[in-house]
């Protein structure tokens, strides 16, 4: 084997070997999308119950003038 053949083989071996043609960004995006799809929706928070408004002078939370 000549020196030029040896040099060209070294260049080929130094390049990273790609197993799949999918980028890390695409893999992470696919994982995030799968997580969103597979997560069930949150249960709505219970609303705080207000005491019923008294009818008459104190409607809608207004106070009576002094």
Short description:
This protein is an all-alpha fold and 66 residues long. 41% of the residues lie in helices and 0% in strands.
Task: Explain what you see.
This protein has 66 residues and is an all-alpha fold. Helix content is 41%, strand content 0%. The longest helix is centred in the middle third of the chain and has 15 residues, at 24-38. The N and C termini lie far apart (107 Å).
Structural class label:
mainly alpha
The 3D shape can be described as rod-shaped
The parts where pLDDT drops under 50 for at least 5 residues are none
- What is the quaternary state of this protein? single chain
SSE topology string: HH
What fraction, in percent, of the residue positions are helical? 40-55%
Report how far apart the termini are.
Answer: 107 Å
Total DSSP helices: 2
Largest sheet report:
none
Mean pLDDT score? 74
What Rg is obtained from the alpha carbons, in whole angstroms?
A: 35 Å
Number of strands: 0
Name the beta content range.
under 5%
């Amino acid at each position: 084997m000549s020196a030029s053949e040896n040099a060209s083989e070294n260049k080929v071996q130094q390049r990273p070997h790609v197993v799949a043609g999918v980028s890390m960004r695409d893999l992470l995006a696919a994982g995030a999308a799968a997580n969103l799809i597979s997560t069930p929706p949150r249960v709505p928070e219970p609303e705080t119950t207000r005491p019923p408004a008294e009818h008459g002078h104190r409607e809608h939370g207004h106070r009576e003038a002094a």
